[in-house]
Amino acid sequence: MDELKNLKLQLIEEVENNKDELIDFCAKLIQIPSVNPPGDTTEITTFIEDYLNEVNIPYDKYESAEKMFNLVASIGNGKGKELVYCGHTDVVPVGDLSKWEFNPFSGEVKDGWMLGRGASDMKAGLAGIIFATKMLKKLNIELPGKLTLAIVPDEETGGEFGVPWLLERGYVSGDGCLIAEPSSPLNPTIGQKGSYWFELEVRGEPGHGSLSPLAGRNAIVDAIRAINEIRTLWDIEIDIPVDVQPLIEVSQKYMREVEKDRLKYQEVLEKITVNIGTIGGGTKSNVIPDYCKVHIDCRLPFGITQEKVTEILENKLDALHIDYTINRFGFKSVANYTTAEDPVCKSIVDNISFVTGKEAYGVMQWASSDARHFRQHDIPVLQYGPAYLPSIHGYNEKVLVEDIVRCAKVYITAAIDFLYQK
């Protein structure tokens, strides 16, 4: 054990001594626009290939859709367990440029912050797992088993051509996985809510606006009635399964004591959340609209299935006697988790404490990610990565440089613990 501890201390020192390379690598990833949509990862994939080639890390490259590239790279002797480190190269659009205080693709470091789109979600984490793997290779560390990088192009729009594409074809497997998605410094996410995204299409009868509401049937008005019913999904009391109640409780403790600005959000872990995301319909103000489309994002807690939500929705909307259709799209999953006692969770949590000297524990995520796909393929998984959480998907995205370095230290030491465990 002392031998492994000394090796980990040596690796922490190597990360510290080479942190300028890590930060420069992260900056260059941010400087390459890889916005999804459209999802063209050609340039950033080529850049990562060149970085892996510097130390001759072998990899396979798969184009899962036009200009969407997956990289699968591995090191180790292959004679033991396999640990997967996963990250996505795509980022969400930048939105209104006038609302940014800096160039979203600058990759600038200022006052201890790495700036730019993807800094927190998740090019800093991506840089960390690639850098840690490269350091292990460069230092000729004899790893039992295999450490695999799964670098995917398509997470921000649902991930169809990234993680699930690789898993379904058997290009990636493993005994445990770490996704370098954003998290808090001491609390990786070991569970997540389910996702239920859908489009509500309401149809009406057109007519002259001057005769409304006596003429025609207003699809927008019917859609408003439907929306009011859909929002009542929040009010449903759901029985949380006994086996996940400890995870819910520790996650609520985290929201009370760590991310205290999340205190008011504790209920979301046990409720169906409902976001009315977009709405559109009609042709002009003096025409009774004959259609309305609404996009809605619901997140599901443990204790309810996709099918049950569909049944509830249809019962509510049928009672309105409107002409409607529900079309599913985007994320589709039920709540899922990996036990805190699983070796991959223990390896990450123990090494967060080893690196920081502070107590760490896993919590639940109220959103969704690629983790669900690994669990569907019976691969235990958790998420841990550098982030300034309030900036994710927003303007002026950023992350602390010290957090990037800390996470890289955790990645490199956790790989040692996981792969050397019998």
Automatic annotation (TrEMBL):
Biological or metabolic pathway of the protein: Amino-acid biosynthesis; L-lysine biosynthesis via DAP pathway; LL-2,6-diaminopimelate from (S)-tetrahydrodipicolinate (succinylase route): step 3/3
Signal peptide: none
Cofactor entry: Co(2+); Zn(2+)
InterPro entries: ArgE/DapE (IPR010182), ArgE/DapE_CS (IPR001261), Bact_exopeptidase_dim_dom (IPR036264), Peptidase_M20 (IPR002933), Peptidase_M20_dimer (IPR011650), Peptidase_M20A (IPR050072)
Peptidase M20 dimerisation domain: residues covered: 190-322
Superkingdom assignment: Bacteria
EC code(s) of this entry: 3.5.1.18
Name of a matching Pfam family: Peptidase_M20
Example of a GO MF term: succinyl-diaminopimelate desuccinylase activity
Reactions it catalyzes: N-succinyl-(2S,6S)-2,6-diaminopimelate + H2O = (2S,6S)-2,6-diaminopimelate + succinate
Keyword flag Hydrolase: yes
Keyword annotations of the record: Cobalt, Hydrolase, Metal-binding, Zinc
PANTHER family, alphabetized: ACETYLORNITHINE DEACETYLASE (PTHR43808), ARGE_DAPE-RELATED DEACYLASE (PTHR43808:SF32)
NCBIfam families: DapE-ArgE
Protein family membership: Belongs to the peptidase M20A family.
Protein name as annotated: Probable succinyl-diaminopimelate desuccinylase
The organism of origin for this protein: Lysinibacillus parviboronicapiens
Taxonomic lineage of the native organism: Bacteria, Bacillati, Bacillota, Bacilli, Bacillales
